[in-house]
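Onboarding guide, step 5: your first structure request.
Type a short instruction followed by the sequence, for example:

Predict the 3D structure of this protein.
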Amino acid sequence: MSCKDPRAATDPPVDSPLDLDDRDQAAALAYVLALHPAQLTIPDLVREVTAGATEFRENDRMERAIRDLTGAGLLNCPGGLAVPSRAALRFDELLGG
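The system replies with structure tokens like these:
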């Protein structure tokens, strides 16, 4: 008797929580970099990146992404505004952004 994966071969791959976190952080940072030098408040950034989602889960994921980017030194949030750090801006320049 063989042990097969119960998921069918046609099932889409499931993203891990870490994959989702990375995707959310990338989306938030890309959005802030694209808008620079314009600035958004954190709630406005969350609303725009999530396309106005009203589900707590979607908003919480994006707020967590912003918090993690701030902790990694890629975003600064003085006075509640989301601003890319100098390091993020330089990296964006290196990538041709």
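Each response can be followed by summary notes, for example: The helical segments are 17-35, 42-49, 56-71, 86-94.
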